[in-house]
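Action item from last week, closing it out:
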Amino acid sequence: MDEKQTVQRILRIERELAARAREPLRNYNRGTVHAKQMEFHRCACRNRWVFGGNRSGKTECGAAESVWLALGEHPYRPNRPNVQGWVVSLTQQVQRDVAQSKILKYLPPRRIEEIVMLSGRKSAPEYGIIDHIAVRNAFGGLSKIGFKSCDQGREKFQGTSLDFVWFDEEPPEDIYEECRMRVFDRRGCIFGTMTPLKGLTWVYGEIELNERNDPEVWCTHMEWKDNPYLDASEIEGMTALMSEEEQQSRRFGRFRSGEGLVYPEFDPERHVIDPFDVPADWQCAVSIDPGLRNPTSCHFYAADYDGRIYVVGEHYAAGKDVDWHAEKILALADSLGWRRDSSGRLRALIDSAASQRTLAAEKSVAELFAERGISVNTRVNKDLYSGIQRIKSLFSKDPPEIFIFRNCVNLIRELKSYWWGEGDRPRKVDDHALDELRYFVMSRPAPALPAPPEKSVIQRDKEQLVRTVRREKAWMTRF
């Protein structure tokens, strides 16, 4: 190779490197970083969801995730050769205008092997409906990004084994369940990006509340202020045009119902923290709400030197007897290093109903727990409204005055799903952890009123003079 050919080759390489540097995927979250997007990409769970407001950046991260997986170049997950994945939209028109457009934006043209169209021309795929795109994978083979729409029906989602499925907006539950089966044998992943506009649908229970306590389920919320590319003045202007109720979904990406949450002050991002070793002198109390067919809920509570409350341990199970619950609670106490009283018993608060005996039982629940090493105090304050107000106050303070360890999953779930019902009373559903949280909070002294400011010497002199004048007037009126 002569000198001229060498120079030409170097120039071609430099042009190629310059072209690659301009690719959107190369510049994704470089320089200006969307922290919530990166939190999603770094999460190792296999069922991840972003509930985001409009223009919060949720669709961008779904598209980038899909392209990274197909290319075999994901920076935070194990990469695979010959990846098979689906991008699922609500309709084909929405597919063309949203998810398909984003995939084409982030997919480098040099890595596209073939585009198969359902309608339109391959030379202008952005204007048609794509069936699938064949992509050259970093391992040398071909990956396939297929496009599906929910209006095709569940039958069109059968049969294929997949490495990933991306839901752009909320799918029907039967299609979601079918797609879970598609990634099952390949230990693939599911992820969704959506604005919750339909109320408390199946996604709320399955993902937001994680009612099955599936360790692979993870979700986060994105709002306008999380997107560093949105102008602050635009956010302010759009906020002014929306009602507070509409902002819950379209700005904050939160689920909402007509009745309203009892604890809207609870924010997992502020109040849920990673567990840590709690000092022994922070240990405060154990609180129990017993159940048989309903769950028995028990939490361990600590308080730091400033009075901030920490919920540090959770036992929560249904359909078991007192023997089983007592054994599990004592084992949890041992794992936390929880102190006992002078007789070696664990002390706890419990619902006052536990002291009652029934015709079917010779001993009360409280007596049964006491025989098994848990000395329970049934004299708890069960005032519903005062307890709710006290808890709301703890959550609303800045900084917060209550924190919940991340492994207390059932308490977190109940806080998210506690709704007002009729007659200004909360719905009496799934509130066992919340009941014993109230018992504990109401067992603590009410916050002291702030001390009046210290009076100056001049103020004290004035008050003394006023008292003297009043005494003299009172004396004169006697004559």
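Closing note: The mean pLDDT is 89.
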